[in-house]
Amino acid sequence: MPIITFANTKGGAGKTTAVLLLSTELARQGYRVTILDADPQRWISRWHETGEPLKNITVISYVTAATIQGMISSNRAKTDYFILDLPGASTPLLATAIGMSDHVLIPIQGCAMDAKGGAQVLELLKYLEDKANIRIPHSVVLTRVNSMVTTRALQVVKALLAERKVRVLDTPIIERSAYRDLFDYGCSLYEMEAERFSNLDKAKENAEAFAMEVQGYVPNRMIRAQEQEPVRLPRTVRSAA
Known about the structure:
alpha/beta
């Protein structure tokens, strides 16, 4: 029952999109996913309220430092993965959530501000390791990457992370319009029609590769998803004419 936390103290880093892509991919494989929505903007909760409920996904809103342990304990028996979406700011919940995590994912765009927000999380992780001998596995995931252009800023961010010996996932999250559409329709990528949403196949491939890489670092050894009933998503979302 792994706990995966997404953290960056700067908002707009693509954190919530990454949460949604990982969660829906895990659910599609048959895993029961509980998303703990601690972001005051409640984008995940709004997504969940917009469309029809998706099989294997539960969303819990208004998570705080005082309530997170109780929420995890009360949902442990019906959850295979907890995915935690933290606020895009430095809050008391940050240290509590990180200390409970099996893996921390730090979404960073190719810009200095995102790198600074991610650096605060990395500094906290290092502090826990140095002062309390608590080592939390963690990785950076590059987000909103332009598939056609590698910017100078992105190269600078990569160089800084390499210098600090921070692991960066091989799979970046590419900027795709389909990812934005998920929040408008309250659905997963697999409920969209390819002819109505641009580059949907590429979006699916990217999301699947991202989820598979994360699972390589955070496997769930409690169940085998292939032994469960396949997930069927019957509803088809149609874009506006």
